[in-house]
Amino acid sequence: MHKLNPRTAALLSAFGWAVGYLLAGKALAVLLPVPPGGAARFFRVCLLAPLAEEGVFRGAVQRRAQPLGREQAILLQAVLFALQHGSAAAMAYALVCGLGLGWLADRTGHLWPGMLLHSANNLLVLAMG
């Protein structure tokens, strides 16, 4: 059996995690729709999404992409994070946030600071309507 180049394996793994997260999110949205507003929306947007997205993008994707280089791993996870955020404006904002959160995860070696910032950001976005 042929062994993959470490950079190719890193890319395939990173893309696999991102696609898996996107598909799981779509399935959950269909199976467990959340009505607009209320505690369920707060829980989903301010708690569940930041925990899951930090774990997938800054955790799994960024760490698996390390063979590409630190900066490239941060950029890759930020681009994949942005692509799953819908409109062009949301993608641009998510790209900038993803770069900052990726840098923070790389700098601290932990996901929890990014989880807290991500939750605070989503709370502000939710409050602004």
UniProtKB/TrEMBL annotation:
Keyword entries, A-Z: Hydrolase, Membrane, Transmembrane, Transmembrane helix
Domain of life: Bacteria
Domain CAAX prenyl protease 2/Lysostaphin resistance protein A-like: 39-124
EC number: 3.4.-.-
Residue stretches spanning the membrane: 73-104
UniProt KW Membrane keyword: yes
Entry-linked InterPro entries: CAAX_protease, Rce1/LyrA-like_dom
Record keyword Transmembrane present: yes
GO MF assignments: hydrolase activity
Record protein name field: CPBP family intramembrane glutamic endopeptidase
Organism: Faecalibacterium intestinale
